[in-house]
Amino acid sequence: MNNNKPRWLKTITGLTLAVTLTVPVLAACNKSDSADDKTERVLRIATPYYGEEDEYFRQQFTEIFEYTNPNIKVEIVSAMNQDRYRYGPPPEGEKPEDPNEKMKELMNGDNPPDVVMLDYGQLPDFIGSNLLQQLDTMITKDKFDISDFVPAVIDGIKSAGDGKLFALAPTFSSQVLLYNKKPFDDAGVEYPKDGMTWDEMFDLARRVSKGEGENRVYGFSFNPYNYGSKENLFWEMNTYTAPLQLRMFNDTADKMTVDSDQWEKVWSTMISLSKEKIFPEPIDYSKMDAARRAAMDKGEYNPFQGNPFMSGQVAMTLGQTYNLNELINANKSAQNIKGYTPIDWDIVSVPTHPDAKGIGGNVYMNGLMGINAKAQNPNDAWKFIKFINGEEWAKLKSKSVNQLVSRAKYIQPRDGMQYNVKAFYSNKPIPIENEMSKLYREYPNIGQVSQMGMEYFKKAMEGTSTVRDALKEWQTAGDAALKQMKENPNAPINPMPGKAIAVPAG
């Protein structure tokens, strides 16, 4: 199902010309002297979602390899049935397929794949099940240089394998803290810097927040497009809480854990910042629409009126590569955008907590692949993984403005600009909690417990309940929901968020 594909699938790169020009170089760099080069072989690559006919996967990962290795036929095998729900919804109460279990079945089958593509969150499970070959020995034997792999990728993969490498990822995505220099200059406040704590960043945000109404400059937003709704804040503060590994329920999903001092501190911090108007306030859409119409009548329509950062109303925000691209392109075309003032900006690493220093920023590894322990063609599997993680491949893919390659040498600012590009890879990914991942696979509706929390967070923000009382209510309602979920794992446990849940007697 397309909705289950990783978010990086949505990023399509225009590299056709670059591929055409670079293939001869890659071919020369990967040509082997082995007599086995003429022997026809099959390399089977298993993915969670892509199939044999998936054009994007081949363009992204295998076409150039096949061109430079014409004797190797690449077969792409999907672990999931792509047609299962194509022609209609699943039967009521049917448990969704578990991608981990489906991949394991494939890896242990009669015709096992050689290479397996995984999400970062799956690594500990597959490593712990002894399904992946360790790559360190091969890396050492072939003197495959990984010294310039960024910490966000290589340290993250090692942490999942207890210091050992069982996979590599050629590209990744992450967040940075994007800031507008003008509010800091106006307030006489120093610019943000790499390695800040969240409290240090919030302090800067307070110092640059000023003004009222439409002239207000807000210190920080978790999202460039966020106008401060309670719902948005509830979900977006996950970037703040995730590195703390702050759980909503215990390892067995039979007891909530939100009635705690730590949860109270997090909610109190977010609500206080919101009341101080550090975060953007909810927008009056009727007024905004009127302003847009008036501006359009005058020929002064600003396409960034829905983006408080691009409109100069927010001093700092979290962003990704596409946000930088939007900003760079807007600044280049500023003379053609009426009402837009070019922004003098830079980036630093996403703030972290003292108890989880250097961890955070929603690091996501693209094309993470390892070798099946039961691979039928392990030599070509390693050849392929070396190829897509090699320098020449990184050099080619670095031409894209929408991807970050894993080799630091080829991560450079766009168009000869000067900005702190290292901010993208300074932080490490959040450690994987294997037990939590397992619960989300085992109980497909468990996410509804977190949805319930939004209703209680709104009560705390509106002042109709204290923070601790709101958390206690969530704890009680969540306990009932978890009980209902255990009794009927595949049924919706909370169809009406914020309402009392009927718990079966007994």
From TrEMBL:
Q: What is its main location?
A: other
Cellular compartment(s): Cell envelope
Source organism superkingdom? Bacteria
Keyword match Cell inner membrane: no
Keyword field: Signal, Transport
By its UniProt entry, which InterPro entries does this protein fall under?
Answer: Bact_solute-bd_prot1 (IPR050490), SBP (IPR006059)
The cross-references to SUPFAM superfamilies, in alphabetical order and at most eight, read: Periplasmic binding protein-like II
Q: Where is the signal peptide, in residue numbers?
A: 1-27
Per its record, how is this protein called by name? ABC transporter substrate-binding protein
Phylogenetic lineage? Bacteria, Bacillati, Bacillota, Bacilli, Bacillales
